[in-house]
Amino acid sequence: MTDLFVVIPTYWTWPQTASAPPTTASFDHPTPLDGESTLPALLDDLCVQQDAGFEVLVLTGLAHVDLAGDVSEHVRNILELYRGRLRMRVVDGPALRRMLDPTRLSDLPTELLHLQSYAAVRNLQLLVPHALGAEVIVALDDDERVEPDYITLARRFIGTKVQGHAVLGLGGPYLQRDGSVLLPEPAATGNPFHDKARYINAAMRLLTESQDAPVPSPMALGGNMLIHRDAFSRICFDPAITRGEDIDYLINARLQGVRWWFDPGLTVLHLPPRHYDSPAYQRMREDLFRFVYEREKLRMHGQHRPDWLEPYPGVLLSDELERQALAALEAEATPELTGRFGTPAAILEQARAHAALHLPRFDDLQKRWARLMRGLQHDRTLRGKLRGAVPPF
User: Fold this and answer.
1) N or C: which end of the chain has fewer CB atoms below 10 A?
2) For 4-278, which CATH class?
3) Per-residue burial over 67-81, b = 16 or more CB atoms within 10 Å of its CB, e = otherwise
4) pLDDT value at position 22?
5) Phi, psi of 96 (to 5 degrees)
């Protein structure tokens, strides 16, 4: 039984030749089915790890459910080149149907486990390794590269104690193409929605001051996250979060008494394919939904811009959030974009309504997740069903 799983979500959309195809998911830069995938480069790096004691789980995110069959075939063709070189499993559309029908999982709210949102994909990232006996989950993204000692470094601190606290959630920095941990910074505007990179960089400078040991972190980066069983067995990703599910998980963990840690030496090279990027206006829309929701979640639990989220994302959780977001959206708006995604004022109202609808449900979802994960440890029939649905590739 493998104690460490490397989980790689890979997100897919319609071929570039498709005209006005339907979508039900918003991903930052999904790969078109006829585009070049970044996944093989990461798999090549995993093939040469100094520590080979891990298994790989690939998850196929879908821009629309009708893509399930084509994406499954396409991704499995990619993975065929690595058969015998890596121990692998795949959760794609067909595998997910086998998992859900009929098991106790079918009793869960459908938004917790599916392939069409970041949070739901990430919950599969937790559930399947748990069923397979994982102690540690390493989350990487398919647009990254890692050095041969990455797995060795990943094992150093997770599950240990630092400053008297258990390290159950741990992350590290992204290296940009130039090798820096800092994002390119545009000229300051005074609006944190436009200046977000500047605040992320401020946090990164603080987090990377020392290379000696992990430090408490206000940020988690979804493509470089380590989660221990004592955390993922009781903390889920919130399905109401459409973007920024990594920091939301950190918040969920902290509300459950679990600190997040940052290891400056645990680096990945981040190479997002910019030619597939979604529009800035769309990403800003998702950010408005995200930060309105996060702020209200924190307030619901008695937290008003807590210092453990400074300087980022705390700067986007203030009383000025709505005004700042409207100004930023108005600066990016065009008739074509507002026709597709809504006007700034409409987006703000939708974000408020989204938070009001979903926030009252999350604590119950969290409890149901914890019950399921506890039950999974003792339910041999369910574990066998899940393992059979996601066999070794």
Assistant:
1) N
2) alpha beta
3) bbeebbebbbeebee
4) 80
5) -65, -40
